[in-house]
Design goal:
single chain; 34% strand; SH3 type barrels; alpha+beta; 88 residues
């Protein structure tokens, strides 16, 4: 598993878990409310320049712009192109 903000562009992955920073439990609730739930397919499709903030993220059938700090709360597992979890 790795944080979403470290996922290379266009690499398919699945959400494993969402962990809010200490003292900010509302971040987890917000991310889950907009669809970042375990098992959902996700990929980073673009990133801002300079500093790569925000990230444009595709989750299921929706697209969102997330700050890198928000994306760092989302743990993902990469999958191969046919949708199976990649073993690394």
């Amino acid at each position: 598993m790795r944080p979403l903000h470290e996922l290379p562009l266009h690499m398919p992955a699945l959400v494993c878990e969402v962990q809010a920073p200490e003292g900010l439990p509302e971040w987890r609730m917000h991310l889950e409310a907009i669809g970042f739930l375990p098992g959902e397919p996700v990929r980073v499709i673009a990133q801002g320049a300079p500093g790569a903030d925000p990230l444009v993220v595709r989750i299921a059938d929706s697209t969102f712009a997330l700050r890198r700090a928000e994306a760092a709360c989302i743990r993902v597992q990469t999958v191969d192109p046919i949708g199976e979890v990649a073993v690394r």
